[in-house]
Amino acid sequence: MSSAADPAVRKIVLVGNPNVGKSVIFRLLTGSYVLVSNFPGTTVEISRGKFEVSGTTYEVVDTPGVGSMVPQSEDERVTCEVLIGERPDLIMQVADAKNLRRTLLVTSQLAEFRIPMVLVLNMMDEAEERGIEIDSRGLSERFGLPVVETVAIYSQGRKQLIQAIQKAAAIESPVSKALSDHPAFPAIISAGVTPALLSVEWLALDDRTLQHGIERRFGPHAVSQMQKRTESYRSERHRSFAKEIAATRNSFIDRAAVEFRKKRNPRYLDQPGVTGSRIWLALLYAGMALLLWNEVGSLSGLPAPCKALYGLIGKHFPPQGTGTIDFVQSILFGAPGPGRYDFGLVYAAAHLLMFIVPVVVPLGFLLKRNRAFVHEIGILTRRPSTGFPILLLVLLLVYEFVGYTGAQTLVGLMENVFFGDYLIPLFSRLAPSGLLGQVLVGKYGLISMGLTYAIAIVLPVVATFFIAFGLMEDSGYLPRLAILSDRLMRIMGLSGKATLPMVLGLGCCTMATITTRILNSRKERLIATLLLALGIPCSAQLGVILGISASFSFATTLAVLGVVFSQLVLVGYLASRLIRGRPGEFIFEIPPIRIPQLRNVMLKTWHRVRWYLKEAVPLFLYGTFALFLLDYLHLEGRSLLGWIERGLEPVLTGILDLPPQAASIFVLGFLRRDYGAAGLYDLVRHGALTAQQTVVSMIVITLFVPCLASFLVIAREHGIRRALAITAFIVPFAISVGGAAGWIMRVLNISLQ
Amino acid sequence: MNSPCPNMIPEKRHLESGTRKLAEEMAEALEALWTMEEGGISSFSEASRQAATELTPQLLESLRRENLIAIDSKGRATFLPEGRVLAERIIRRHRLAERLICDVLGSTVDESEDAACEFEHLLAEGITNSICTLLGHPRYCPHQRPIPEGECCRQAREELKPIVVSSEQLSVGESARVAYLSSGEQGRLLRLSALGITPGATIRLLQKWPSFVFQCDQTEIALELEVARHIYVWQTPQE
Question: What is the ipTM of this complex?
Answer without folding.
Answer: 0.84
